[in-house]
Amino acid sequence: MDMEHLKCLIIGGGPAGYTAAIYASRSGLSPVLYEGIQPGGQLTTTTDIENYPGFENGISGQVLMDTMKAQAIRLGADVRGGTVSAADLSSRPFRVTVDGDHEIAAETLIIATGATAKYLGLPSEEAFKGMGVSACATCDGFFYRKKTVAVVGGGDTACEEATYLSTICSKVYMIVRRDVLRASTAMQERVMNTPNIEILWNCNTQEVLGDGSGVTGVRLLRKDGEVFDVAIDGFFLAIGHHPNSEMFSRWVNVNEEGYIITEDKTSRTNVDGVFAAGDVQDPLYRQAITAAASGCRAALDAERFLISQKLI
Ligand code: NDP
Questions:
Q1: CATH superfamily, domain at 119-237
Q2: Spatial distance between the Cα atoms of 127 and 123, rounded to a whole number of angstroms
Q3: What are the start and end residues of each CATH 3.50.50.60 domain in the chain?
Q4: Bridging pattern class, strands 115-117 and 241-243
Q5: Which has the closest alpha carbon to 309: 33, 97, 106, 95?
Q6: Least trusted range by pLDDT, from 77-86, 130-139, 160-169
Q7: Residue among 116, 119, 120, 156 whose CB has most ligand 1 atoms within 8 A, to mutate
Q8: What percent of the chain is modeled with pLDDT above 90?
């Protein structure tokens, strides 16, 4: 097996990873970035991004990611297709295997593997992804101005997204599988006090309905056995995210939901030389701009670490 020795290895091709690559390249760390199974990350599954500063008229998620990647490459980053299949962070240099057969020894590691929104797993939901089915109200809500949408879930995210959508849409249904919300009291009160939010209690989604133009409705099964259809234009999932930290959680401290714990305002983990950036360490904000900012921090932290170890 060939073994490559790197000063800085970045895992993850989303805004955090690409930004880390931009900064690490300019600092002379000769970073290598592996993009993983979804180059560009979650942003490539959205349509236009209107809240990323610098683009007066918005920009498509795919174009934003392609541009960040091109910028990182122009500055010298080695951006590669490939997925990390194993990691050993027990000692430095850290050992990482890519696609089962390429061995890397890395003095610093930036984990920017992101988070994956949970979906219900229905074939009809998959069929309308990007055509009315979304897991990000902040990204896509704007496209449902004066329309009717549904949000699945009863946690803080679902309440927050329903409240946000209620300012844009004429009507918001919340599809809640139990007869209570999991969300905090304050969030529940906000939902209850919003006249255009209606909660459909004890309901599970059987099928997302639609045609060539996109989503047109949802078929629900209530606990009492009744099956009924509700007309909607957009179907938003808010049933939680999985941070993609499993491969590293043997060494790196994670919280009870699996998010990597970073020290104070830095990107440092409990393992010296291992840094985390983006959604894999952020249960709260999960925005492209906050991910990019944390990627910047991770590259600066990696550079400082390498200097402290006299490795650059
Ligand atoms: P949660 O795990 O808290 O809630 C998930 C919700 O989705 C629950 O209501 C759950 O139902 C429901 N759900 C899960 N799976 C399914 C399914 N298959 N079908 C239907 N419904 C399903 O996730 P959140 O993303 O809401 O929150 C994650 C964390 O982030 C929490 O700790 C939350 O407090 C925090 N957060 C805080 C915010 C704030 O303070 N402003 C904002 C957003 C998040 P059930 O209750 O029946 O299990």
A1: FAD/NAD(P)-binding domain (3.50.50.60)
A2: 6
A3: 4-116+241-308, 119-237
A4: antiparallel
A5: 106
A6: 130-139
A7: 156
A8: 89
Q: What is the pLDDT of residue 104?
A: 98
Q: What is the dihedral of CA 275, 280, 282, 286, to 10 degrees?
A: 130
Point out the ligand 1 atom lying closest to the alpha carbon of residue 239. Answer: 7
* Domain 4-116+241-308 annotated CATH 3.40.50.150: no
Backbone phi, psi, residue 208, to 5°? -90, 130
Check if 136 is active-site: yes
**34 token code pair:** 């592996």
Backbone angles phi, psi at 205, to 5 degrees: -80, 125
Q: Does residue 195 have a cis peptide bond before it, meaning omega lies within 30 degrees of 0? A: no
Backbone phi, psi, residue 194, to 5°: -105, 110
Look at the alpha carbons of 229, 235, 236, 237 in this order and tell me if their dihedral is positive or negative. Answer: positive
Per-residue pLDDT tens for 254-308? Answer: 999 999 999 999 999 999 999 999 999 999 898 999 999 999 999 999 999 999 9
What is d(CA 38, CA 165) in angstroms, rounded to the nearest whole number? 28
CA of 199 to the centre of ligand 1 (A): 15
**Atom 40 of ligand 1, nearest CA residue:** 156
The pair of three-digit structure tokens given for residue 210, joined into one six-digit string: 């639609």
276 bridge partner residues: 111
Is residue 45 pLDDT above 70, yes or no?
no
> b vs e for 238-269, b when ≥16 Cβ sit within 10 Å of the residue's Cβ?
bbbbebbbebbeeebebeeebbbebeeeebbb
Q: Which of 140, 279, 282, 301 is catalytic?
A: 140
